[in-house]
Structure formats: C-alpha cells, structure tokens
Amino acid sequence: MPELPEVECVRQTLAPRVLGRRVRQVKVGIEKVARPGAEALARGLRGRRALASRRQGKLIILELEGGAFWTIHLGMTGQVIIAERRPPADHIHIGVTFADQGPSLFYRDVRRFGAMGFWPDQAALLDGPLARMGPDALGMDDQVFAGRLAGRKAPIKGVLLDQTVLAGVGNIYADEALHRAGISPLARPAELGAKVLRELNRRLQETLAEALAQGGSSVRNFVDAKGRPGTFQQAHRVYQRAGLPCPACGTAVERIVLAGRSTHFCPRCQK
Ligand SMILES: [Zn+2]
C-alpha cells in the first residue's frame, strides 16, 4: 500500500501536470471509486481548475477554484496516469479530460480500495476524508509526536498505524522506523520515556525523508504520476525480510502478526 512517501511522490509529479488546467469531462466506470458518488464527482469537477495541492497522510488534496476540493486516495493499488489517450491497461476506472485538449488523467486501481472525491467546501472535506484523520507525520516535531503517543497502552506498532494518531505511516515505515530506533513493535508507548519517543520520531523522520528522496518504496505496483517506480525497497532493513539477517547484527529478522498486520523486526536489536 502506498504510504506517506509514495503518496507525496505522486502529489509532486501530479501537481505540475494538472494545476491550472480546466476539467472538461469526467467519466467514472465504477461507483465504488467515486466519492460521494460517480455523478457528484463528475458534476463537481467539470469546468473547474485545481489551483494548489497539498497532502495529509495518504490523501492528496487538490484545491479547486471556488473553495471546493478534489481528493485522491490511492488505497492499496491506486495509480494516477497522465497520458494522451486511455492506456491499454485494465482496471482503469476514472478518466478526466481537460479543456486544453492536453494529456488526460486516468485513475487505475486493481483492488479498488482507493477513491477520487469531490467536496464542495472545507466543511465537507473535514466531514469526509479528513474526519478523524490525525496530523501529518512528515515534519512532525518531537513534542507533538510524544504528545500524540503518550499514555497509549496498545503495542506501539499498532499505534503508529492508527491514522487518527498520526497520518501517513503504514506497515513499511512503522517497521523500518522501529528497527532504526531499536524499539520492539510490542513495546507500549505508555511505558516508554520521552527520550525514547524522541529517538523514535527522529528515526521516523529520517526514514520518511530518505524514502521520499528515493521516490518511495515500490512493493506491489507502485509508480508515481510519471510512471517511475521508487527504489527505497532496496534500503529496507526488516520489512518483508523475515529469515534474512538483520543488517545491524546479523540475527534473523522475525515476522509476527500484530494488529492484524505482518510485522518484521530484529529480536536482538529491538527490545
Ligand atoms: Zn539486529
């Protein structure tokens, strides 16, 4: 699943290709990937221009003229493709053409857990995809990070994945940051001191920044809006490396299931 660095790479490569262009037509193939529905998405976007872009967690937010918003959530396998004509690939569910007759935007999603949305104003956006979403993890300062985690008694791996606590971290970056910080995925935030949480945030920020610089991690089918895969998967230390040696100490990386998600860690480095 694309996480914060991958989604940010998509946003950065998408923005220069859509900002300032007026939407001409939107065609939605299946209702499930359109919010609040196919008709509302198509009618809302038609005739509007996106003027700015931002991201919160795994959500791309395009600010439309007139105070409305266009959101893109990639779910597990969503891809944004910019092309002159509809690509031959299957699983393309949304096509957006522009009044300038330039390249169109296509939304492809094999698993269909992602969605594109239209929200007429800020209140609708806050009630919709941003409802209950915590602050973005990227650039979060140590004090805010410690405050979000303080007192929580669930295993820290699950807390990091909880998008209401902080937004954008998924399975890859939770496992990688915990390894770099030397913290067991089973540790409970309530039992960790301020110094340990500060170290975890430092390692999390470092991991996210490195991944972003390398175009994200391409597990499954991730590519950015220019069709380029990332390379950070080559730098993973524990994620999906069960049985392989920990790069720090050589002990075999272990895999357990925690909060319903596979979790990878070094039993020696992470206490
Ligand atoms: Zn180790």
List the helices and strands and how they pair.
Elements lengths: L3 H15 L4 E6 L5 E2 L2 H8 L4 E7 L2 E6 L4 E5 L4 E6 L8 E7 L5 E6 L5 E5 L2 H6 L14 H8 L6 H6 L9 H11 L12 H20 L40 E5 L2 E5 L6
Parallel strand pairs: 2-9
Antiparallel strand pairs: 1-7, 3-4, 4-5, 5-9, 6-8, 7-8, 10-11
Describe this structure in words.
The chain has 271 residues and is of the alpha+beta class. The protein has two domains: 4-127, N-terminal domain of MutM-like DNA repair proteins, CATH 3.20.190; 142-265, Helicase, Ruva Protein, domain 3 (Orthogonal Bundle), CATH 1.10.8. The protein is 27% helix and 22% strand. The protein contains seven helices and eleven strands. The chain has helices at residues 4-18, 38-45, 122-127, 142-149, 156-161, 171-181, 194-213, and strands at residues 23-28, 34-35, 50-56, 59-64, 69-73, 78-83, 92-98, 104-109, 115-119, 254-258, 261-265. The strands form three sheets. Strands 2-9-5-4-3 form a five-stranded mixed β-sheet. A hairpin with a 5-residue loop joins β7 (92-98) and β8. It is globular, with a radius of gyration of 20 Å. The model has no long low-confidence stretch (mean pLDDT 97). Bound molecules: zinc ion. Zinc ion binds at residues 246, 248-249, 251, 266, 268-269.
Q: What keyword list fits this structure?
A:
271 residues; alpha+beta; N-terminal domain of MutM-like DNA repair proteins; Helicase, Ruva Protein, domain 3; 2 domains; five-stranded mixed sheet; four-stranded antiparallel sheet; globular; binds zinc ion
